[in-house]
Amino acid sequence: MVKGLGFVAFFVLMLAVACMPLPSAQALKPLQQDEYKVLPIDGELVVNVFFYDLNLELFEARSLRDLLDLVIQTGIIRPTVKSQLHAYGSKEFVPFKFDVKLRFIVPSENVQQEFRNLLRSAVSRTPYQVSQKAIEYAMAYGMPLAWVDQTIRARDALRTFSLLTEKYYPEVAGKYAIFFFCGTPAMGGDRPAVYYTFGQSPDSGAYLADFGINIFGGTWWGRYYYVDLCSYPPSRFYKNFKPIFELSTATEKVTYLATLIDTILDMEFVKSLIYRPRYKIQTLFDIIVIDATVAGVGYDVIVRYFDPEMLAKAFRTLMPYNFFTVRLKEVELKDIPELRQAITHTADGIILNPLKAYEVLERSGVIDKTVSGSVDYIPGIILFTTTTSWVESLGTLGITIPRPDRPDLPLAATGAIFHEVLIKEGLTPTVIHELGHTLGLRHPHDDFDEYRDTRSSLFGFTYFTETIMSYSNSWIGGLNREQIFADLYPLRTFWSIFDLDNIDRAVVALMLQEYEMNYPEIVSELQRVGLQVRDVPEISEALE
């Protein structure tokens, strides 16, 4: 284990060196071995693909093995998945590479029947607080309103597969899995199942929901995604995620299946980061809200919709080995008129120039340049307006600015929020989201595709993933206290299980990189005084 390497190994090494006589020049030999090289890490990614209530004839497959062959033969599914440590700076540092191994599984008929019963039991009356969302979804497809009167919460559908996997496939429980199914039989056979996300904002108390969640994953029950191939997505994503029975040929259906598997592999299971995360340090998030509302709502109103304790807890959940503190400041345009140079008014909304805003706040002393040393200082600049606002360009809700001297680390996070969104969703989720980028996290709908050497994006997955890094209201479940594991108290999860995996993988890579850098120096120093690593148990243990 590398933990404690920097302190323990070098402390013991210096003691050993101080107590040993120097050997002759002939005894000094340069280090010739490369045994300490551990990066990149090669491994195997086993993904279990389950099929519930789907006939293989749908794909014109003679057997499960034949279906797997057909999917592989499309050439769509990557043979390996990689995770890039950060998007800026040394792009070549890809510390992990996993060979993909797919296992197709069709559960037995008794398991399939239990699945139908469980999914049917998850059907309940759509919460009245979000009935308008349900009506809009039905009208987009010309559905009878009765179809959206009885619906399934996406979390409950995913939990169904979690329970079945734990019960009948315990050897793969919690591991990477995709559940393809058709929910129509569970609904009686005459209508597709309809899924939604739903919850209450902890900041504002407003009810939030999204409908048409025919794909969903990210909760902490396991590394799972479900895909209801018979359900309708949000209407704006119909072209990409239409029900499989609306595809004309078996070839189209196999291609669609392969595309979904490949997308989930790269965009969710083994995702890349945009910045290098930090570990074993203290981080100060300095939240600076630029009040650009017409009348100026004031600090008291902003504080009403912001919970710094929740923000700190969110990041302790993500990186428990770091210590996070939060500070909130409000800046009004009348106090720093120069900030108006960073704000552009257009017919479609207000646009913040993030770098210019940072420079003005730095010159005015709002950004605290006195914080240094062991504290990692990250400003979060949030533009608050009366009407629609964006960052850098129309449609962009926020960006992070890289440091000029270290582009693999962030200079600041920036975001924009307007009054209507503030009183509905609160400020805390927006700030957590933008600061999540500074620690490397991407949105669930975008990634860097190392296999095809290009940026990839499929916006529907922002609705299909429960994480605060989503643009949709799917994050609301993670911000409310939910009982995630049996016999444990309810907790807030904030992030998807894949966010946690991605951060942990990156931190492990950084620790191993530090190990690789330190190991030759330690061994060389030991050789200089006539010792081997195994001769000093404390060093040997630290390096292991």
Tell me about this structure.
- Helix 1 packs antiparallel against helix 15 and helix 9 packs parallel to helix 12.
- The chain is of the alpha/beta class and 544 residues long.
- It has a six-stranded mixed beta sheet with strand order 2-3-1-6-10-9, sandwiched between helices.
- The protein folds into two domains: 228 residues, no CATH class; 158 residues, Collagenase (Catalytic Domain) (3-Layer(aba) Sandwich), CATH 3.40.390.
Rounded to the nearest angstrom, the distance between the terminal CA atoms is 5 Å
State Rg: 26 Å
Note the overall shape.
globular
The counted number of beta strands is 20
- Overall mean pLDDT: 88
How would a textbook summarize the main sheet? 6 strands, mixed
- What is the percent of helical residues? 25-40%
What is the total number of structural domains? 2
Structural class: alpha/beta
Number of helices: 15
GO molecular function, one term: metallopeptidase activity
InterPro entries: MetalloPept_cat_dom_sf
